[in-house]
Design brief:
Elements: E1 15-20, E2 23-29, H1 49-97, E3 109-115, E4 120-124, E5 139-147, E6 153-155, E7 167-168, E8 174-175
Antiparallel strand pairs: 1-2, 3-4, 3-5, 5-6, 7-8
């Protein structure tokens, strides 16, 4: 390879060609290099690579942890929704397995009852507080339920709002889905 001697192709006031390591480097602009290029240049400190790596790693971990926590919050919301759907399916199965002899209507509230005399679950119109005297002694009220428009059933509280996940089994223990 032919060596160019002092070509200074840029022909700039602050530009010059330089010979580095036995090779000619064209247009070495001392004004734009991050390090001094001559003996009288300003002092500079070398970047401490290990400290820089530690800083970068800590920042990366902080941002990754923030993203991880955000995703875990979303997972918690999805888990709650999945549990609510599972609970609806459990209540729906319980209602469809119950015995009843009347027409049910969407949006209406009914009661799942364990009949101790007949040893079966029944669906009842009247709740424990809706009898003129008192409910039959052989009834154990399990849940207050409402038929939704999508043909599923959901447990509700006295105001008709979706209730918490407890239903009593015929053995009297609380069961959770």
């Amino acid at each position: 390879m032919a060596k160019k001697k002092n070509s200074n192709q840029a022909k700039g006031r602050y530009s010059y060609d330089s010979e580095i390591g036995g090779s000619l480097v064209e247009f070495l602009n001392k004004n734009v290099t991050p390090y001094p290029t001559e003996a009288g240049g300003p002092k500079f400190e070398l970047v401490k690579v290990t400290e820089q790596k530690d800083l970068m790693l800590n920042v990366a971990r902080m941002h990754a942890e923030q993203e991880y926590n955000r995703i875990m919050d979303l997972v918690a919301v999805l888990q709650k929704q999945a549990n609510e759907i599972k609970r609806r399916l459990y209540i729906t199965d319980a209602v469809h397995a119950a015995y009843y002899q009347f027409q049910t209507y969407p949006g209406q509230i009914y009661h799942l009852v364990w009949d101790n005399l007949k040893k079966r679950t029944i669906l009842e119109h009247m709740g424990p507080d809706e009898w003129t005297t008192s409910p039959p002694d052989h009834y154990d009220y399990l849940a207050r339920v409402k038929w939704l428009g999508d043909f599923t059933w959901v447990e509700v509280d006295k105001e008709g709002n979706v209730a918490g996940p407890t239903i009593q089994t015929s053995s009297g223990s609380d069961e959770q889905s």
